[in-house]
Amino acid sequence: MEKKIRILIVDDEVRFARNVSRLLATRGFDVSMAHNGLDALEMMNKTRPDVVVLDIRMPEMDGIETLLAMKQLEPEASVIILTGHADVETGILAIREGAFDYLFKPCDIDLLMEKILQAAAVKQIQRRPVLWPRRMVKEITNAAFIPLDITDDLTKALEIFNAMGTVGLRETLHVTDNKSRLRGMISKNLLIHEARKKNPGQSVCWETLTRHPQWLPSKRIGDVMTTATGIYALPDESLDQVAQKMIDHHLRCLPVMADNQFMGIIQLKDIFYHMSTDRENNGQEYGEA
To answer: Do residues 105 and 209 lie in contact, with contact meaning Cβ atoms separated by under 8 Å?
Structure first.
């Protein structure tokens, strides 16, 4: 990174904030901390961070109130919610009020770093208005995916992730057989783990791995993939049902299955956005659900 990305960590758990700040600093970020909403606003004025990582549950001024105040101070602020107290209502409200993403604690540091890079690259997402209410899984399923087979090499998974672009939002690829049945999953973190095992002396993160695909071992997808969890969404399920299911299991992405076949994926962030838009179109305020 030529110019260090400025990060503001806002969390009332001092030890947690310090640990995250230290890990991000070792990865080349310029990190500052605040432990409540008021201090965060003051720090935001001083440091003008590129990305804010914000907790939800804080005393006096909670994360949502802090998010609203930050957006008034700087409408294009990129704010990532990182919470150990996830629920559907705060997720909907956070995305409605402009949060870039909504992550669960505990969060893998490589995933957090990737989200920070995405948020810094896309300062403000311009969303198009939804032309009709979307309330069912099948209406927002992402069915555009490149098949990944258990016999493929790990480098193919890396190539697919890279083809999604530097601001792609998927961290997991789903592995199917020749009958489109879901066999397992492979994540960016798993590829990083395999590269680190092969190259113990290298500092491997996603950014460096994409530049050095030779760091991956000569293994097949089936040798390292994780098995499917058995948790999935059905096309005719409602978005609110699936959102609660994903929060209960700390999942940000879920496969969509029909007749035992893999149809695509659905992401929690997209669910929150469409539920928020539906409520706005119906004139429903937060807390009325």
So the answer is: no
Cα→Cα distances 17→31, 33, 73, 249, Å? 10, 7, 23, 24
Q: Which of the following CATH numbers is that of domain 6-121: 3.40.720.10, 3.30.360.10, 3.40.50.2300, 3.40.50.1100?
A: 3.40.50.2300
Which has the closest alpha carbon to 93: 116, 66, 112? Answer: 66
pLDDT tens, position by position, 96-121: 888 989 999 988 888 899 889 888 87
Contact 182, 231 (CB under 8 A): no
Q: pLDDT digits over 191-234, tens only?
A: 999 999 999 988 899 889 999 999 999 999 999 999 888 899 99
Q: Rounded to two decimals, what is the model's pTM?
A: 0.67
What CA–CA distance (Å, rounded) separates 214 from 25? 27
- Please state which CATH number belongs to domain 137-277: 3.10.580.10
Other beta carbons less than 10 A from residue 87's beta carbon:
13
